[in-house]
Design a protein that fits this description.
The complex is a heterotrimer of chains A (308), B (252) and C (416). Helices cover 75% and strands 1% of the residues of chain A. Chain A has 308 residues and is mostly helical. Chain A starts with a helix and ends in a 7-residue tail after the last helix. Chain C has 416 residues and is an alpha/beta fold. In chain C, β4 (99-102), α4 and β5 (123-124) form a beta-alpha-beta unit. Chain C is globular and about 65 Å long. Classes of the chains: A mainly alpha (308), B alpha/beta (252), C alpha/beta (416).
Chain lengths: 308, 252, 416
């Protein structure tokens, strides 16, 4: 398994990285891993079901809100808080899934935008619980063992690797194959005896589960959450990372997240217009490497006549 | 012979247009039936009413003594009704084997396996091999469908429709758009299907049809015009009027 | 990495011409100051003025503080708390600044404050007015140098309004913490003095059409209206208040930000005669204020707003504190202690200012009126002065902080 060895090497490199980096860069790497999980969860839908979601930022943010809230306000310990964040995000995703499964294409996209806005509005307006504009702050959320940023990084790396492996298994499972069937031809899947809405619903919930894992990790990383964490921008950022990495490649999300976060971080040293630079990079990607970075690499590396 | 499929006064209306306008017919189990008729006669809509892709506006659809008029498509498929499409409607980015696998699992409980690898059971593997063999696709099973020729894609379509060993098979113009060689190949595949499958076939190519089926139903403007064995259909003046005459004319 | 676009480094020549006093050794390199302000988005103009205020002082001081070079690292907080948090991390952990100052919106300041609580980095917040940061939830290393708490100026205005003879007042404010706190400060003092707060209106940020509110305000039969607005909302409210015909009928009182120079700069006669309370009045004839305003106009061709003034004063304050400790900016405890004990006597206010024990300045507060200048521009001119106003008004700090903080629900309005 050539590709497996390659990823194992990458994992090993990622594991020794904090020993070589400054503390700030360890944080940056942690952020990249967390957002890669979000981007992968988006790719599960966009790449394997053909449904582009713009509400995964909101699902991610729900987990962040819930984790911080249950720790700061309800005094739950870290592990149950983490789990409740993931569960809450999955439930929200399931609810969204119920509404979204009967749509596709641009209608699906618009519906997810609207659902994301609802979450954002609630976080902004439900001041008593969410802190409104001021957001919620957690304090000393990480268990003692994870206080050192290297340790936290390794935990995030382990969770991200596990999530990546699980998502890879998921899209290649019989169920994942049926999602790809739905992407290719919904009517045929129905004729074959598949309950398409049910499949989409489960696919959406599973994808939301992983977005929730990322959001719950983010809570411990950031120890702060505000409506901007559930806003459109978050969803767009995640989608952008998936696209730059390569839609349908899953692991490309790691590359996409690294590319965008590092770029954002470097460019914003030099100019306030970094968002324009980011937009330009995105356009160039769309023109010259529409399959994303990993997609293009794979195409170039693949023997002739065998796509993907 | 008991009836596999009985339609009673089936109407499918799209607004003011009655695409199927009171069709009644009965197809005995194991029969091979062709449905012919000029374009717009309602053949494909009738198929859709049988598979449940559209709901009959009125009338009854009975399959093997069960009223399936109100059932959704996947439940009809579960009862053994399988169909192919006029326009190839496979999963282009999946391999032949994956296409067959999806077809198999569509009716199987294992489709909610979210985590395992897509490994077919021994029974599934046997059925897959049988379908590949019947559709003459051995050697092409790991190719993505989009990389196959059009004729081969029609063969995949047939393989997919028989892999579940359906009770009844609806074929919508299985040879449309194929070269004569490819058409002969498809006819061969259909002829070699097990005799216990009831086959209903929409086809324009009269020569192909008449050599394959036991009985022919000719539709015209959403109604049954004539029902007769193939030997009689060519001579039927009504059929010649609406269909054969024009078809021959066009062919000539 | 040290010399990037935004770095402002004292020249080598300046270093050679160092003053006679040379601080104790061990400090190599410049004092690094992280400055955060919204430089993109709708608040970019205010953010730009904040940075201008800092650079103005630093340049006036020869790019030096306590004899050491000064390096400013400016970051755009994007008016977004998450971005602010990221940028604060970068300033502290990568740029390794000695201390930070700035931020405009309360939520960005609160996000950064939560972060520096853990790192101990000194963080000075001349613009962030959230009451809590110098009251119940104060953080030792977060000091409101040259800033003010939201309700601090609203308290005396409530007192003044009652003494002015207004009996019935309605308030209208933006529906977020900054608005809730200012309206509560005004309503509490006014109603406790014996006035009646007839009704309170809350509208979302970025309201474009105020006519539903103005219609109701007009029909209440009140003696005056208190308006707590910022930025574009303030501009629109003042314009629509005038075009609705209310300006001639009901006197308008404003929070200090409602008539801040950043708002009335673009307005005409419709902003004339609005009374507000603030520690700074750009139209004051105090010599120090006049000199500051003139210098600011010369440099930037505009009359200073609160943003420029506050950041300028904050920088001046910290510079003075650094003098006291020989420029040891790295010594956080010493710096914080020096900042807390510094009494600033040469600020543009022209009067000495010092911090209360909770890290919020005590000011002589002006009741101001917006007045037309000979050149047609408008500015705030003092009417009278409330001396030594603390963030707790005339309440005892202990009692004040035992009560729950001001919020939309807790407006402390005394009935009857």
């Amino acid at each position: 398994m050539n590709r497996g060895v390659l990823w194992l090497l990458a994992l090993l490199a990622a594991a020794v990285m904090p020993l070589l980096l400054s503390s700030y860069h360890v944080d940056l790497a942690t952020r990249i891993l967390i957002f890669a999980v979000l981007a992968m969860s988006i790719d599960v839908l966009a790449g394997f079901v053909g449904r582009t979601s713009l509400c995964h930022g909101a699902i991610f943010g729900v987990a962040t809100y819930v984790v911080i809230w249950v720790m700061a306000k309800a005094g739950l310990p870290a592990v149950p808080a983490f789990l409740s964040g993931v569960v809450a995000a999955t439930l929200v995703a399931a609810l969204f899934g119920l509404l979204a499964v009967r749509t596709s294409g641009v209608y699906f996209l618009l519906l997810t935008v609207a659902l994301g806005m609802v979450v954002w509005g609630i976080c902004l307006r439900w001041t008593g619980v969410t802190g409104g504009e001021n957001g919620l702050r957690g304090q000393d959320m990480r268990p003692a063992l994870l206080l050192a940023r290297e340790n936290f990084y390794w935990l995030v790396l382990a969770v991200a690797a596990l999530a990546a492996w699980a998502m890879q298994r998921f899209v290649n499972s019989p169920f994942g194959l049926s999602l790809r069937g739905i992407r290719d031809s919904e009517s045929r899947m129905r004729a074959l005896g598949y309950n398409v809405p049910l499949h989409l619903f489960i696919g959406f919930a599973v994808s939301g589960f992983f977005a929730g894992v990322a959001g719950a990790l983010y809570a411990f990383f950031n120890e702060y959450v505000s409506p901007s964490s559930v806003a459109m921008g978050q969803s767009v950022a995640g989608l952008l990372m998936a696209i730059v990495g390569g839609i349908g490649t899953l692991f490309g999300s790691f590359i996409g997240a690294a590319a965008i976060i590092l770029l954002e971080n470097t460019v914003s040293w030099y100019t306030d217009r970094w968002q324009a630079v980011l937009g330009l990079v995105f356009i160039l990607t769309m023109i010259f490497a529409p399959e994303g970075i990993l997609g293009t690499v794979r195409r170039l590396a693949a023997p002739k006549g065998r796509a993907r | 012979m008991p009836a596999a499929l009985t339609l009673t006064e089936v109407v499918v209306a799209f607004g003011a247009l009655r695409a199927v306008d009171g069709v009644s017919l009965s197809i005995p189990a194991g029969e091979r039936r062709a449905i012919i008729g000029p374009n717009g006669a309602g053949k494909t809509t009738l198929f859709q009413a049988i598979t449940g892709m559209v709901q009959a506006t009125s009338g009854r659809v009975v399959f093997e003594d069960a009223d399936i008029t109100a059932l959704p498509p996947h439940q009809r498929a579960r009862r053994g009704i399988s169909r192919t499409f006029q326009i190839t409607n496979l999963f282009p980015t999946l391999t032949v084997r994956q296409n067959l696998f999806l077809a198999l699992r569509g009716l199987a409980p294992g489709k909610f396996n979210l985590f395992g690898m897509p490994k077919p059971s021994a029974d599934e593997a046997a059925r897959t091999e049988a379908a590949l063999l019947a559709a003459r696709l051995v050697g092409r099973e790991d190719t993505e469908v989009r990389a196959l020729s059009y004729g081969e894609q029609r063969q995949v379509e047939l393989a997919v429709s028989i892999v579940n060993q359906p009770r009844m098979l609806l074929l919508d113009e299985p040879a449309a758009g194929l070269s004569p060689n490819e058409r002969a190949m498809v006819a061969e595949v259909i002829r070699a299907l097990p005799r216990d499958i009831t086959v209903v076939l929409i086809e324009h190519d009269m020569d192909l049809v008449l050599g394959l089926v036991d009985q022919v139903t000719c539709l015209h403007e959403g109604r049954v015009l004539v029902e007769a064995p193939p030997s009689e259909i060519r001579g039927n003046p009504a059929v010649q009027e609406v269909y054969l005459g024009r078809a021959r004319h066009a062919a000539g | 990495m040290t010399l990037h676009r935004r770095t402002l480094l004292g020249s080598t020549a300046a270093l050679l011409a160092a003053p006679a006093y040379v601080p104790a050794l061990a400090q190599t390199g410049p004092i690094k100051i992280g400055v955060m302000a919204p430089l993109t988005g709708v608040l970019a103009a205010g953010g730009r003025e904040m940075v201008d205020g800092v650079t103005m002082f630093v340049e006036q001081a020869g790019k030096k503080m306590a004899g050491r070079d000064v390096e400013l690292v400016v970051e755009d907080d994007g008016s977004n708390p998450d971005t602010s948090l990221q940028k604060a991390r970068r300033l502290v952990e990568q740029a390794k600044v000695d201390f930070m100052m700035g931020n405009l919106l309360a939520n960005t300041g609160l996000a950064v404050a939560g972060y520096v609580r853990g790192t101990g980095t000194p963080y000075f917040i001349p613009i962030i007015a959230a009451d809590e940061l110098t009251q119940r939830n104060r953080i030792p290393n977060v000091v409101r140098v040259a800033g003010y708490s939201a309700s601090q100026m609203a308290h005396p205005l409530g007192d003044w309004a009652f003494k002015k003879g207004y009996k019935k007042i309605a308030t209208i404010g933006q529906d977020y913490t900054f608005g809730h706190e200012q309206c509560a400060g005004f309503a509490r003092v006014f109603s406790n003095a014996g006035g009646q707060v007839v009704r309170q209106f809350w509208h979302p940020l970025n309201t474009s059409d105020f006519s539903p509110y103005l219609g109701q305000l007009a029909s209440l039969g009140v003696d005056a209206i208190f308006a707590m607005e910022t930025g574009a909302d303030a501009t629109r409210f003042i314009q629509q208040y005038s075009s609705f015909g209310l300006k001639q009928r009901i006197p308008l009182l404003g929070a200090m930000n409602t008539t801040d120079q950043s708002v009335i700069r673009t307005l005409g006669a419709e902003c004339e005669g609005i009374v507000s309370a603030a520690h700074f009045a750009e139209g004051s004839d105090v010599a120090a204020t006049k000199a500051f305003v003139e210098e600011h106009v010369k440099r930037f061709n505009r009359i200073p707003s609160l943003y420029g003034f506050a950041m300028y004063s904050c920088t001046m304050w910290v510079a003075k504190a650094l003098e006291k400790i020989g420029g040891r900016a790295e010594d956080r405890a010493a710096l914080l202690a020096a900042v807390r004990s510094t009494e600033l006597d040469n600020s543009p206010l022209g009067r000495p200012v010092k911090l209360d024990e909770f890290g919020n300045p005590v000011y002589d507060v002006y009741i101001r009126n917006t007045v037309r200048r000979p050149d047609g521009k408008y500015w705030n001119v003092p009417l009278e002065t409330y001396p030594r106003v603390s963030q707790f008004w005339r309440y005892s700090p202990e009692e004040y902080m035992r009560q729950s903080p001001y919020s939309r629900e807790n407006q402390y309005i005394r009935q009857g």
